[in-house]
Amino acid sequence: MLEYYGRECWLKLPGCTKVATTKDHINPHTHGGSDRLENFRPACHRCNSKRQERKVGNQVRIITGPPAAGKSTYIKEHAYPNDVVVDLDRIAKALMPDPEDAKLQTYPDHIRHVAIGARQAAISRATRLRENVGIWIIHSVPSPDQLEEYKRMGWQIIPIDPGERVVRDRIANQRSSSMHDVADRWYDKPSSGESSPLIEPSRDWGIA
Ligand SMILES: [Zn+2]
Q: In the chain, which segments carry CATH 3.40.50.300?
């Protein structure tokens, strides 16, 4: 495998030592992964053990898409009752004195700051659960780097987008105009390096 793929760690998670010393199963045994060459990649010891911890069984899905696309609805329709949903909007609302008053989806910066920390903690714990549950993470507009990391972790990326006209109408009808900025990022530069202001800007999104 090292002859075929080279000695460089393919996972490159935070803390990577770059030099591959282990075999990483792309699709782990517990998920029916094979022992054939195409299911292996070289990985450094640190990345491999990090990934293993988080792969202990539960499927992680990242739901992306512009604001008002129906991401929460999609999760409601597809999640099992015991699944875990990590949604920064909802975390931020829960941190405000009157959550009902937070309909506009614009929170003060300090609330967002606290919510991002809570979100990281939630992802970190959720991905280590021993219970067999699905994990759903809403991340509206991930940067290309974040997307790559999600893919390396073996997490499924599910884009939800009913089309720009529908989204713009919904935002105009019922949400704050600042949601248009996030929609701009999704439609103008869906693969730009920028993160949505509503989401975690740092690449260190969950490894404790
Ligand atoms: Zn590594």
A: 60-188
Q: Is the pTM of this model over 0.70?
A: no
91 Cα to the center of ligand 1, angstroms: 31
Q: Cα separation of 71 and 75, whole Å?
A: 6
The CATH class given to the 60-188 domain equals alpha beta
Instruction: Give residue 51 CA to ligand 1 midpoint distance, Å.
Output: 10
Q: Which residues pair with 63 in a beta bridge?
A: 138, 158
User: Is the Cβ–Cβ distance between 156 and 61 less than 8 Å?
Assistant: yes
Each of the 208 residues of the chain gets a pLDDT tens digit; together they read 788 888 999 888 878 899 999 988 877 666 666 788 877 889 999 988 877 655 545 789 999 999 999 999 999 999 888 899 999 889 998 998 887 765 555 678 899 899 999 999 999 889 888 777 899 999 988 888 888 888 888 888 999 999 999 999 998 887 667 788 889 989 975 544 444 433 333 333 333 2
CA distance 31 to 26: 10
- How far away, in angstroms, is 23 Cα from ligand 1 center? 11
